[in-house]
Specification:
19 helices, aa-tRNA-synth_II, alpha+beta, globular, eight-stranded mixed beta sheet, about 35% helix, five-stranded mixed β-barrel, magnesium, about 20% strand
Length: about 575
Amino acid sequence: MNILELSEQEIGRRQSLQALRDMGINPYPADEFPVNAWSDDIKAKFNEDEKREVVVAGRLMGKRIMGKASFAELQDSKGRIQLYISRDDLCPGEDKDLYNKVFKKLLDIGDIVGVKGYVFRTQMGEISVHVEDIKLLSKSLKPLPIVKYKDGVAYDKFDDPEQRARQRYVDLIVNDGVKDTFLKRAVVLRTMRKFFDDRGYTEVETPILQNIPGGASAKPFITHFNALNIDMYMRIATELYLKRLIVGGFEGVYEIGKNFRNEGMDRFHNPEFTCLELYVSYKDYNWMMTFTEQLLETICTAVNGKPEVEYPDGKVISFKAPFRRLPILDAIKEKTGFDLDGKSEDEIRDIAVNKLKMEGIDETFGKGKLIDEIFGEFCEGTFIQPTFITDYPVEMSPLTKMHRSKPGLTERFELMVNGKELANAYSELNDPIDQEQRFVDQMKLADKGDDEAMIIDHDFLRALQYGMPPTSGIGIGIDRLVMLMTAKENIQEIMLFPQLKPEVKIPQSSIKEWAAIGVPENWAYVLRKAGFNLVADIRDQKAQGLQQKIGEINKKYKLGYDKPSLDEIDSWIKASAATVE
């Protein structure tokens, strides 16, 4: 990287880096630094009558230089602690460079340091560490966006949602509460695993690369397996492999892992997402509803200390069991006034298009997808408190057992919370002949143009023919669950590294393109620093003015380049103009 591609602060930090090395200080030492205390621990265990020696490490987040004594703020993994640094205590001998040069001039905000000292309370009453030794552990070469306040206005806030998601490492450093969200996510997963493990269910891992993308209605990502010279799919669900394990004799299995669906992105969807799927033999969907109530109440209490989540706008969502249970056709009738029970595909399409005035409905939509679209538009967003939507039509549920008492319906539920689906569960279909026919029906939908219809998985059908016990299964979107438990409204806030559009970069002519109009490489970087990113940008410049601009940069950064003549610069300008004629 050419130095002129850096900001002034970055250049200054690299100069400090070199100055440290010139002093014999390694800015990236390899040896262990024996930390024995953390910021929250120091404050919680402070004792006025005890001179406690501590060794702490973290990131410098502030410095207040006050002559022979200074204050600094250190941020570690647990929080922040104030440091008090006296020149003569830090440097008891004649050599004061550690304080006068290193601490005051060469250490920057963002540097990671280790300090040794003792805990005391300042005259202002703040528990602090009186530093007796300080060591640079890692030099920061980029400045942090530290918020500054003037006249009640905040400056340099790092609050752009896209930048926060793109540079999560900065977001975690400078924004309070961000790390807490991801610690709560860890609590969700840890509590869920313990809940399953305590009941004797086994955590397993199944393939992410699959020959057939089964277990859900979704558009897959396609990749190529070079060794076998075949196309494969990133899994859209773990369902069919987990059911194979139930066939094989596991009583209960679960997997928490990544799924991939080649679909849109918005504040509720990310194409790469985490999902929990659980399958338990000899159970049905009624048992699973009760089990799910217990699971979510336990998780919410573990995360929030109570079975409720409070949102910033005052909304409260309660996960206290039991939850409401409502058949899907009743929900549609309740919200739209139309009873779809017993209606044909054409009748439902007529209601959707002509009565409900829905857009985007076409002939590729089968009965199940039509019902799903109607529910999604008119019903889903209205269920704020946890509600089990039950008894879906068979056309919507190709992997679900037929309802034992309601012809045409299946034993399936989806859990709606805060206007979105959180979980999907079935009394699992274990009749291999019925399952094969359901797959055939799905392929007919694919032939009509439905790119989310399921593909027949012949190996799964073969497994079912060996006999699968009555089983209930559930899938829970972990990302949405974490959104609910942390009262977040955007999926990017609870994913450490969500998918994003490619970063927009300022267009720049290459060094080769500058050379083509006669500009040497070193002066190409100077021209960029002067704000001329494209060769065409200099076409309207005057040779004398351009010479002055680049000469100032040459002088400011002490580059020592030989100044190009006016004739040379004029030739650049003319060649630049020729490129756009």
